[in-house]
């Protein structure tokens, strides 16, 4: 038998139906014990509907966050570019000191090569951590206010794209200054990076529910990201025989990152097969990740509220 709750209450899991009324309660939500996975198409449609319904709220929250983040800073938007720049400087200093020399086989200036990889990597890791950070940051609002839950994800996506835009505005002129030949791929690079952002977001959506239940996951991600960066060809050239080495296929960030940087710097690449595979599975992973998010949020909100 279906249970009825007023809109001021936090809903449990299950499909939601709404109806307008002329009584004191404008909207009545009806919850059923049936799992949302019994009709995944409807679940996905509801997710898209709430994503669209929450776009204005997401935009206002994004503007508020950006203003609050840069209002009292001297460097302003440069902080968005500082992390990849700082990482690049560290590797340049290590190379200059003779501690490491990873520039063998790289056909462009080492600083340009590393900086480009760092900018792309930074966007991926921000998208990876965005779902867990967004839900954590808005846990009080989630437990007290009814609003489209997908809107807080949209805020995170806006922030990742904003930071990417700032970095590209600085990076592309630097590439041209260092003698990188202009190709249409430079103009299309935001779309290539966007696909990698979608992949990071999809992985983050699967990690978010576990991370909300166990704080170890967030701590593990913080430790794993630097190690993950080292095993990704960012500060060194891609290995030979890329497509024949199974290890190169196990790192989900590596093919798309290498593809994007190769096309930006050289206009050609050898990683098409693996990159196409990961590009093809990114959208299904993102869709199922959104369904997983929608199913898990009511349970997480109940845990947060208790």
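Sequence proposed for the structure above (306 residues):
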């Amino acid at each position: 038998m279906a249970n009825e709750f007023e809109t001021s209450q936090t809903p449990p899991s299950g499909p939601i139906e709404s109806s307008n009324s002329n009584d004191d309660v404008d909207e009545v939500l009806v919850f059923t014990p049936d799992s949302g996975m019994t009709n995944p198409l409807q679940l996905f449609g509801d997710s898209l509907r709430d994503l669209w319904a929450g776009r204005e709220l997401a935009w206002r929250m994004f503007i508020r966050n950006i203003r609050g983040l840069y209002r009292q800073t001297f460097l302003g938007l440069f902080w968005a570019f500082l992390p990849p720049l700082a990482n690049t400087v560290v590797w340049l200093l290590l190379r200059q000191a003779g501690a490491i020399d990873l520039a063998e086989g790289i056909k462009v200036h080492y600083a340009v090569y590393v900086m480009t990889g760092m900018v792309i990597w930074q966007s991926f890791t921000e998208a990876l951590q965005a779902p867990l950070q967004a839900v954590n940051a808005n846990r009080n609002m989630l437990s007290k206010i009814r609003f489209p839950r997908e809107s807080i994800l949209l805020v995170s996506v806006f922030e990742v794209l904003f930071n990417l835009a700032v970095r590209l505005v600085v990076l592309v002129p630097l590439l041209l200054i260092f003698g990188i030949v202009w190709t249409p791929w430079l103009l299309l690079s935001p779309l290539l990076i966007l696909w990698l952002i979608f992949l990071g977001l999809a992985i983050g959506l699967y990690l978010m529910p576990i991370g909300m239940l166990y704080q170890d996951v967030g701590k593990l991600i913080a430790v794993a990201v630097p190690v993950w960066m080292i095993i990704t060809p960012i500060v060194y050239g891609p290995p030979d025989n890329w497509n024949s080495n199974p290890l190169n296929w196990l790192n989900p960030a590596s093919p798309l990152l290498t593809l994007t940087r190769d096309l930006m710097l050289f206009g050609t690449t050898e990683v098409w097969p693996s990159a196409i595979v990961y590009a093809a599975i990114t959208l299904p992973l993102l869709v199922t990740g959104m369904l997983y998010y929608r199913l898990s949020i009511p349970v997480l909100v109940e845990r947060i509220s208790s």
